[in-house]
Structures are given as structure tokens and as C-alpha cells.
Amino acid sequence: MNHSDHVQAVAHHASAAASSPVAASWRRCVTVHGLSPEEARSPLRLDERAFRFAREENGALLEEARGEIDRLFATVGKAGCCLLLTDGNGVALERRGAAGDDDDFRGIGLWSGTLWSEASVGTNGIGTAIADERPIVIYRDQHFLSRNTGLSCATAPIRDHRGRVTAAIDISTCRDDAGEMAMSILSQAVRDAAARIESNLFHRAFRGHRVLLVPAEGKASPALLAIDRDDLVLGATRAARLTLGIDDVRIAAGIPASDLLHDRPSGEHENLDDAERAALRRVLSRASGNVSAAAECLGISRATLYRKMKKLSID
């Protein structure tokens, strides 16, 4: 059975599509996108104006990802790999590749400005990772189009500060000796890079606010909370949302981070004296215990501060 016949047989087999992400993608390619494995289809390429607009729209992503892309390519570039950063639609915004491999990758379409969505070129690392919203490896004949079966791809989606898929990072290779173990290693590399880019984007979105790391066992992506000066949650990454069971509605309503993280002892009730004591201790600490400096910072007299310290039992 050739590749085309195999794809068609699996795509029309409902139980296979239900059990395998690759088979599910093949099924989408046939039933949703109307593609055929034997099509001589190359990725669509944006014109210069549309490509420039796509990069401008994703300026923050490019800034926060560029360092990670360079570090990742320094590790895998000499192994005959091509590295792509795409937007949430699968448009390749940034590319890294060794000059000696450029002809091969350009011929396949792994180039800046090309569109690697499932609708454009069927099952592939970038399009399928974005469609499924999870990391994936597409190994050679797991690609939908026969023309792409010489390619192996490891891709991870990248989420924005609200947990939505906003980009993808991909390592692809045409090497025949890129076995499953090698692709597994490359997959971990792109997952790690995606996690660092997500963290960069989150810190950028909440610059000037405290960011807390939430213990999240088994989560590959960073579980981060952004906190305002009053301990209320301003934002959370997807991993933090899943771990703590929160969403945009709960965040907008205002949630104390200490409640989410169970920082307060069970049964303890807050009162104004507790809050004032904590605030005064913070200011005194910043003033290295200098009462005059702390009073000046608070905009009160030294005598008033002493009275408050005595009332609240602050030494």
C-alpha cells in the first residue's frame, strides 16, 4: 500500500482517528480541508506587504523569542536542522538554517513568510501543534502530503499571557538518519524553548508587577501568577490556570494570591491591624530599621509611627 492509500484508509477509519493525533489530523485534512495526499501542494507564501504586517503584529513575540531561537539554533544548527518561529496561524516569522542546507529547505517551503497550517499543507509539525494546542513530533511518512514525507518535525505551541496559543516553534530536518530517539531529543528542546518564551511574554505583559512561580507538578510550561501590590491576581499562565482552577472571569473578579496558594494558616482571619502591621514592618525593613526614614517614607511624623508601632507590638 502506497502512502496515499494508507493515509486515505486511516483517515476514514473513525477508531484510528480517535486514538491517534496523527490519524485525527489526517482525517481533518480529508474531511475538513478537502486535501489529497498526492497533491503537488507547496506552502502558501505571503507577499512582502503581508509578511511585513505579520511581523509588525508580532513584534513583542519576536523580541522575546529571538534570544531563545539563537540559543536553540546554536545547539542544533550544525545537525542539518531548520528552525522556524511562526505566529498563531502558522506563518513563519523568523527562520534559522545553515547556508549549506538552504536549497533543500527552500525547496520544501521551510522559509520565512510561508504558511504551515494544516489547511495549507496538511498534517505537519507546525499546523498540527497549533490545531491540537500541544507539542507534537511528525516523523517522515506521518505527514499528510506525500511530498513532505522526507521531512521530520518537532514542534511546540507557544501561549500568550492569557494562556492562548499565539505562536509555535519548530525544528525540522530532512536527514534520513534522524530516528525517533533524535526527534524525541529535539522535541524536548523545542518544548523547553517554548516554555522560556512563554515566561518572557508573561513577564513582559506584567512588567512592574510581582510574578510568582506556582508549584505545578507534571506541567512542562511555566505556572506563573502576576500579583498587584494588594496581593490580588492580575494574570496567570495556562499552567497556573489549570493548576489553580482559575479563568479570566475569576481573575477579573479579584482573587487574593494567598488564598489561591493557601499561604494563610487554616482558620486565620485577616483584620486591619494585621494588614497595618505587615505594611509597617515592610517599610521599616526597607529603611533598615531607621524610624525617622520610615516615617518620612510613610508621610507621617516620627511620634505617630512610634505610637502605631507600640499599638501593634512592633519592636
Structure commentary:
Helix 1 (3-11) packs across helix 3 (21-31). This protein has 315 residues and is of the alpha+beta class. Strands 3-2-7-6-5 form a five-stranded antiparallel β-sheet, sandwiched between helices. A three-stranded antiparallel β-sheet has the order 8-9-10. A two-stranded antiparallel sheet has the order 1-4. It is 47% helix and 16% strand. The chain has helices at residues 3-11, 14-19, 21-31, 48-57, 59-76, 102-108, 118-121, 125-132, 180-205, 238-244, 248-253, 257-260, 272-286, 291-298, 302-311; strands at residues 44-45, 81-87, 92-97, 114-115, 136-139, 152-159, 165-173, 210-213, 224-227, 233-236.
Give a quick set of tags describing it.
5-stranded antiparallel beta sheet; 315 residues; 15 helices; alpha+beta; 16% strand; elongated
Q: What is the tally of beta strands?
A: 10
Shape assignment: elongated
Tell me what portion of residues adopts beta-strand conformation: 15-25%
Report the C-alpha radius of gyration, rounded: 26 Å
- State the distance separating the first and last CA atoms: 83 Å
Number of helices: 15
What series of H and E elements makes up the topology?
A: HHHEHHEEHEHHEEEHEEEHHHHHH
In the predicted model, the low-confidence regions spanning at least 5 consecutive residues are none
Which structural class fits the helix and strand makeup?
alpha+beta
Percent helix: 40-55%
Strand order of the largest sheet: 3-2-7-6-5
Overall pLDDT score: 90
Largest sheet: 5 strands, antiparallel
